[in-house]
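Lab meeting notes turned into a lecture example. A postdoc, R.K., suggested we walk through two folding results consecutively so the class can see how the record format repeats. The first protein's sequence and structure tokens come next.
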Amino acid sequence: MVMRSVYQPATAMKASLIVLMLVAGAAIAGPSSASAQTDATAEGSTEYRQLVQQALDEFQRGNWDEAAGLFAQAHRLSPSARTLRGMGLSAFEGRQYVASLEHLRAALLSTVNPLTVKQRQEIEETVSRAERYVAKLQLTVTPDSAEVFVNDQPVPNNGGERLVILDPGPVEVRAVSPGHQLALRQLRMVSGAHQHLELRLAPAAGSETGKGAATGTSHFPYATFGWLSVGLAGASGVSSVIAWRVREDAAGQWNDEECRLVRPTDPKAATCSGISDQVSTAETVIVVTAIGAGVFIGSAVLFFVLDGTQNDGATAQACTGGPGELGLQCGFKF
């Protein structure tokens, strides 16, 4: 199979195919090993020729998936650098860059019906382009023994490092480990991006890991007490405001009654005494509630800090993305 350029007209591709058939026929007629004769026979078969012609036609129409599938069928009949080239170029045009790199690199290495100098140059340029289009996802998983799947494909653990080459688009990352909860993340990979994802699997309820954590402070409801403290601080603040308002009203009444001038024997003495008690009580409430609000706010801060500390083992995520050195850095913890 000869494809001088994936962008040439269909007539030129057909002419190349005719030349290929003549060369294949000559190879069959000449002396060769048994395996070479078998490959040449398969390559010269009617089924192979039909598959290649159909693949070229679909490629010319822009039906990349169909072309890749037909080239793959021809490759099963007679694997060679040319069929790998067709599969790789079809995958590239279909934006399946990971598969394209696999096929094109194999085509460069294949010695069966090898590529011409011009074809090798074309494939090397396409490989260089595809390498810039793929996205890289680096995974850090705790515990390190967890099984990780990206789009349902297992990701091997190479000495604690898991690097996945992906096509741009949506990605599902799943991590499982005995005694831990399932970790599931949905991402969208950008062409040329290099992202880092950190997964910390939380202990499963009832597991040995979870039981060990339960003996410490990992399950203490710090957050609940924190929010309760916030509520009490708010209530104390409201009470302080109300007491201040009562004190101001009582002080105003004291002034209106001119209690400073009232003698103990005056009829207003009892009234002024009650107003004075009311002012004193209000001032006491103001002081107590203000102090209480401060204590509750401090308690809330402390509880939230402790809650954050005990959740250090929870799932966390961090990522860096963007082509080259540019991109967005972000972090999530929950």
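The second example is placed directly after the first for contrast:
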Amino acid sequence: MEVAKEAFTRFGAKASLDDIAKQAAVGPGTLYRHFPTRDALIEAVYRSEVEKLAAAARKLAGTMPPIEALRAWMLLLIDYIGAKHIIAPALDSLVGGPARLYESSRSQIQGAIEELVKRAKKSGDVRRDLDPSDLLRALIGVSHVTYGSGWQQSARRLVDILIAGSGPAR
């Protein structure tokens, strides 16, 4: 998956599947057996990234205090959004477009942040009326700012602003 992700990032949807197989140290037949079409491989790469993000929420929740886990996961979300922007041309090449794929991943991402926020509410680290969707909207929204390549730095600052603003009302 990592080799394919890098290839699609560098060369877009036209990345050579034979080169991907070679760099992954598998034969082309093995690649095609697991991913019979280019679309299948592109989808698998995207799904893998979403699954990693969801798994990270569980891992962070198990190893960090609630507010720190939420902040760390939100920073990972910024990286995920950045990777999604880079691989977007390959995703756009999917037959029927990427909307179905995005829709199927939305529930995993939503579930991950909901659990982290629920935990932070229970600990008293965040206000009771915090809606996890508001955090997602803010971070996704800043990623769509088109007037510069510095959106990731802005989004990282926004994470700290959102965390501070999410604290319990005094």
